Amino acid sequence: MSSKPYIFRIASLILCVSLGLMLFRGIAALPVTEKVTGPASHYLARTAGETGARNVVGAILFDYRAFDTLGESTVIFTAVCGIAMLFSRRKFHRSSRGLSFIAKRGIGIMVPFLLMYASVIILFGHLSPGGGFQGGTIFATVTVLLCVVFGSSFESQYFPPRTKDILESGGALLFSGIGLIGLAAGTGFLSNIAAGFPAGTFGSFLSAGSVPILNVAVGMKVGAGLSTIFYSMIKMLDAGHDHREGGGIE
Amino acid sequence: MILLSYATAVIIFCIGLYTIMIRRNLFKTVLGLALMESAVLLIIVSSGYIPGGVPPIAPFSGPAVNPLPHAFTLTAIVIGASDIALALAFIVKLHRHYRTVDLDRIRGLRG
Fold first, then answer.
1. Are A28 and B1 in contact (CB under 8 A)?
2. To which H or E segment does residue B43 belong?
3. Are the beta carbons of A249 and B97 separated by less than 8 Å?
4. What is the total count of domains within chain A?
5. Which comes out higher in pLDDT, residue B111 or B76?
6. ipTM metric
7. For the domain bounded by B2-53+64-110, which CATH number is listed?
8. Which of A4, A179, A197, B32 could form a disulfide with B20 if both were Cys (CB 3.0 to 4.6 A apart)?
9. Cis status of the peptide bond prior to A198, with omega within 30 of 0
10. Is there a contact between A15 and B56 if contact means CB atoms under 8 Å apart?
């Protein structure tokens, strides 16, 4: 509503600026450390020996704090469930026709390279920057591009929602299964080298024990999840305004 | 240099907060929320900076930056994305029900 009182806007602006100033003064008072302290220094010093992974961030995510990561990928699953429940009232069969011929051909050339890029980001997650979350998001981007450029029915023909469902559940099962191996070995849930996963030679592709497998699992979960979210929403928008749901007020 | 990064984050945070306070459009409220979230993530990442630090990819050629904020930020980004997607789904649902995303008008219809 643009009929907001003028004084209200000014008061909000002043409040925001003063809050921001207080926040900035608080943050600026943080000490600038010259070297890393706390658990992070342990991670930096011992990651290569304890996990065999080069990427310390990946090792933290999938080895030291893997249980945290499992909980977090459950959050995506919950969001997917919520959105699918919200939009599952009716089956929509309509779909947009997509963009022009030039856009379709261009995307057709780009898609294999995008898929390769996503695979490299996931599979080399323990050696270089990247990992399951980032690569999974790129996979989801491919399906989003297909949805926008070719229309959602084309996308659902190549990546059926059922397949995404199986991929997402499979990722969760793979993650939990790796964790249970650690439990069976008697070293604790989601333990890596201690549970007998081979560490490999440091810096080679097959190294770091369970970290690459967990990367793949999370990549499956994130890619399928985000892609399902987008697909549900664009199906809803494709259905257009002529499908009014019951209970509308007008 | 690090103060500049903090200042940027605080400015983005304030823009998001102002958007949430002023706008009654639900879609813009969610955009403001996303802005505030990005600002907080920027603060977290900046706090792990070490002067002259190198990326935490072993073997290090100098003092490495703190890898822990990066890991936290990764988790927070994913949770924020699912959050925003769910909020947008609710807004689409609201729009189909009330034919508007204006909070005042929706309240007026209720009352």
1. no
2. helix B26-47
3. yes
4. 1
5. B76
6. 0.79
7. 1.10.287.3510
8. B32
9. no
10. no
The answer to whether A12 and B22 have CB atoms below 8 angstroms apart is yes
More confident of the two residues A192 and B20: B20
Please give the residue range of the domain that contains residue A230. 53-245
B60 in the Ramachandran plot: left (φ > 0), alpha (ψ -120 to 50) or beta? beta
Nearest-by-Cβ selection for A44 from B24, B64, B104: B64
Residue A133 has phi, psi (to 5 degrees) of -65, -50
Q: Is residue B91 within 8 Å of residue B27, measured between CB atoms? A: yes
Residue labelled with tokens 């997402």? A168
Residues in chain B: 111
Name every residue whose Cβ is closer than 8 Å to that of residue B17 and which is 6 or more positions away in sequence: A16, A19, A20, B32, B36
Portion 16-45 of B in contact with A at CB < 8 A: 17-18, 21-22, 24, 43
- CA–CA separation, B8 and A56 (whole Å): 27
| pLDDT for position A249 | 40
- Do residues A209 and A51 lie in contact, with contact meaning Cβ atoms separated by under 8 Å? yes
CB spacing of B79 vs A72 below 8 angstroms: yes
Q: Any residues with CB less than 8 A from the CB of A107 and at least 6 apart, and which?
A: A145, A146, A149, A150
Question: Whole-prediction pTM value?
Answer: 0.81
A129 lies in some domain = yes
Distance CA A226, CA A76 (A): 8
CA distance linking residue B41 with residue B28, whole number of Å: 20
Tokens of A44: 């930096």
8 Å CB contact of A233 and B92: yes
Q: Tell me whether residue A14 is in a domain.
A: no
B63 chain-A contacts, CB cut-off 8 A: 35-36
Average confidence (pLDDT) per 10 residues, chain A, 250 residues: 72 90 88 78 79 82 84 86 77 68 88 92 86 88 87 79 87 87 80 75 77 88 88 73 43
